[in-house]
């Protein structure tokens, strides 16, 4: 296994992103449609935050109700904006950061995803799933 190759070799380059003006219903739809757990929030080409599926679960009362979960989510989602729910103080890596360094950062900070930013522009996302899939190739 090569641990010093750049993260660009394994990161997700096809970015599913949200705009800060999108609503939380759109975010939930993207999470489910693409089977992902983290979505960068962008303004033009710059990342301004990261929204996780867990962030949505934290504000949703759907688990507390057995009746008409979709309606409950809609009411709750209309109470918040993406900017209110997303993580704002992001740690990012560049595309030339070695895999080992990214893995250490994810483990130390207990993150599950990091935006990959080159010269202020979002160019990808690296997740623990990307790292696991890379490691599986060598098992």
UniProtKB/TrEMBL annotation:
InterPro entries: CBS_dom, CBS_dom_sf, Diverse_CBS-Domain. It comes from the Bacteria. Residues 11-69, 86-139 form the CBS domain. It holds the Pfam family CBS. Keywords: CBS domain. This is CBS domain-containing protein. It comes from Paucihalobacter ruber.
């Amino acid at each position: 296994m090569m641990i010093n190759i750049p993260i660009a070799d394994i990161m997700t380059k096809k970015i599913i992103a949200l705009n800060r003006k999108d609503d939380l219903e759109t975010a939930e739809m993207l999470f489910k449609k693409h089977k992902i757990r983290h979505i960068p929030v962008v303004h033009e080409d710059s990342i301004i935050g990261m929204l996780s599926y867990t962030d949505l679960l934290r504000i949703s009362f759907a688990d507390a109700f057995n009746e008409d979960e979709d309606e409950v989510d809609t009411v709750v989602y209309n109470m918040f904006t993406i900017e209110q729910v997303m993580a704002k103080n992001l740690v990012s890596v560049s595309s030339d950061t070695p895999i080992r360094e990214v893995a250490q950062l994810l483990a130390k900070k207990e993150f599950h995803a990091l935006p990959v930013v080159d010269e202020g522009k979002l160019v990808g996302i690296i997740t623990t799933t990307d790292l696991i899939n890379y490691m599986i190739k060598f098992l």
